[in-house]
Amino acid sequence: MSTAEAHIEEDHGHHHKETFVTKYVFSQDHKMISKQYLITGLFMGIIGIAMSLLFRLQLAWPEQPFGVFEVLLGKWAPDGVMDPNVYLALVTIHGTIMVFFVLTAGLSGTFSNLLIPLQIGARDMASGLLNMISFWMFFVSSVIMVMSLFVEAGPAAAGWTIYPPLSALPQAQPGSGTGMTLWLVSMAIFIASSLLGSLNYIVTVINLRTKGMSMTRLPLTIWAFFVTAIIGVVSFPVLLSAALLLIMDRSFGTSFFLSDIFIQGEVLHYQGGSPVLYEHLFWFLGHPEVYIVLLPALGITSEIIATHARKPIFGYRAMVASILAIAFLSTIVWGHHMFISGMNPFLGSVFTFTTLLIAIPSAVKAFNYITTLWKGNLQLNPAMLFSIGLVSTFITGGLTGIILGDSTLDINVHDTYFVVAHFHLVMGISALYGLFAGVYHWFPKMFGRMMNKNLGYIHFWVTAVCAYGVFFPMHFIGMAGLPRRYYTNTAFPYFDDLADINVLITVFALVAGAAQIVFLYNFIHSMFYGKETVQNPWRSNTLEWTAPIEHFHGNWEGEIPHVHRWAYDYSKPGYKEDFAPQHIPLQKGEEELQH
Amino acid sequence: MNVVLIFSVLILIAIAIWQVTKIFELSQVKKVSTQVADDNDNDWNGKLMFAFLIFIYGITIFSFWSYGDVLLPKAASEHGYDYDNLMWISFAIIFFVQTVTQALLHYFSYKYRGEKGKKALFFSDNEKLEMIWTIIPVFVLAGLILYGLYTWTDIMTVEENDEALVVELYAQQFNWKARYSGDDGVLGDANVRFLEDFEGKNLVGIDATDPNGFDDIVVQELHLPVGREIIFKMRSQDVLHSAYMPFFRAQMNCVPGMITEFAFTPNITTEEMRQDPDIVSKVKKINKIRVKKSKELLASGDVALDPYEFDFLLLCNKICGASHYNMQMKIIVESPEDYKKWISDQQTFAEVIQ
Description:
- With 595 residues, chain A is mainly α.
- Chain A is 62% helix and 1% strand.
- Chain A has a single domain (31-259, 288-546), classed as Cytochrome C Oxidase, Chain A (Up-down Bundle), CATH 1.20.210.10.
- Chain B starts with a helix and ends with a helix.
């Protein structure tokens, strides 16, 4: 412990000898930790996406045996025919991994860690030690989640929302045995990791900004990470309590969520609990989680769109205000997941009201992005393409939220493929685009090399076409009344005419999956053989590009640069160059924008 | 085997693309790329952005053209009309906003694609503009919220009355049962504790000490008289289920330990629905698919599929375990006379346990 403290002390400002272990494994340097988050997140992403391809195959050709099932699923797909329980396990783990491990830890963990200290002008996070612990807890929880795939009765299979009693009773489905226990343990550790990370981000942003970096001069990325961390601290503990109570019900016979159950020919002793209580606790995190995933992506997009459009972000104040408004509203809308859960319909009215309000700050953000593009000088790098793509899917996916957030309309589309299409576009694809945009943009900062732009273009265009190809038709089968989480639709002849849509969707999904191989190749190849970067390849205003290309603990040789202006002085009249970085003092007679 | 083939083809395509870019790069040996977009990149990506707008419009039109007929099947309940109305209004608004914003986004991406030496406009704030696009959504949403809440209250207010028929929907892994309240119009008390009474004949756990329960009728198929309000009381014996009746625009979760409610008035009988032109053409389409599939099945020595006939359905719409995908019950809406005849043929609880 004392050595660790000494280590931090020593690190501020100067080099010192690091061993392999302290530099690459148990590193306390935020830049290394961010890379660790990214690579772990990408690894989990490969698993999550591969799973989705497996169940898409099953949905498109439900009666056909597939060799690949037998190879990958072994005893759960005898002769290549997938077992229904495994189908449910696949959708469950796909959801869990993508939401928490890829888009929460992989996205926010990576870029909050990389950018908070670098963009606010700090030598490291407030606590490097906590930061390191946070990553390793995430790593352990990832390992446990992956391990749960290999237990005898299979992993958790109750849906990523793991509603009890299905998740609480091993009699109800095989996945609710050891698999579910491991899921809960993994998530409990994950939440602890996320809390440590979030606290660190909040403290760092509040305390460690460099001279001149007032809150109104913060880049929008930092605003987004900061507010995301606050939402996390407010809502993740509630999920932890839900998980702990569920563990109690499962292992110690309490009745928090269970009551009056008869299963497998036996009356159980549970009395007086309610699954609806669990739903409230779960969605109290579950909904803010959408914004925990999305806000960092929107922050990244704001930064990238302004930089590559060579234009100030339009309506900085409105952007900050809408981040705050979304954050506030996100904590009081969870009930829109429960309109038909059996809760009082009056509550449904309240949640409809608060939910639809979120459309207002979201609309403001979308319009501001579009206006930022107007009369810009757009440098269409892959990062920029993904950012524009994000705005596009954010609009398409967000708009259908108006239907789902309306309690009346939700009655008939709740839990159908309409919902699947909606949330995949608005948070899944959008946040994934944010992740990709961030990787393309900050890759030179992370690895000192550039990613190949042509492969980036292929990656974007194939992914963009396929994302719409997968999720646009999905709205239609949802509106036709097809429920999600069905292992096959052949039990209902009524849905027979939807089969060809499912084939189309799966083909697009497979091509989209293949496009990600291009990205992975580009990522790994560029890490070692990419073109070496110049210090500020995108001619960006923010502070991270004033730090040297070579990484060392402490970020800047000598003094940390001071800040004299906001982050978006692009193409400002009176300057020869089309950018004026934050550390450049104002010219004589130049006025700083009031924002 | 197909999948392996598809996968390998996809991977090969990816490799091919990579090789082509490689060749492309190698052919320009003199100019070492900085990997930052140049004018040429801006130009072709900008044009692709415009093409992408056409793609979005294209896939929208294509989807409506080929799948438009599956959208929101004809409603068969009284509140269905209000529901559909609200849905189409919301849809129209969404459609309009989507068309306009996507056009602006992609057109700007194309129009303002970068060129060397060009300078962007320094334009960072405009309160009037921002006010406009804050206020307009406020008004539109206020309208939608009010209309939505009005309809919601209308649908969800369940008032007990003598006219209405009270039916219990009982869910278990993986089937549905329905319990009618019998002549007295009152459902007898019930609890899972009573399921083991009477050697398993007490299918939904009716309390045999409650006299209201004796005339209750438990069935596996749901019959509803047309034009009469039905008040559903939902129960579940094991895990969460959801009673989803898409044609009636009705859905409610079944929660172990509590009774949930939903009410609607069916206004079209099954027979009438089968005559509906939309349904007729849908059934035709489905049967065509089934005949084709049957031929394949017969060729491989399997049994052919039954021809499909339209019926209203109750589906489970909350993940409940392995056979969740096949947890269904047929719903038959019929004239009050037919309903009366059918119900009088069913055994009451008192008769069952004798």
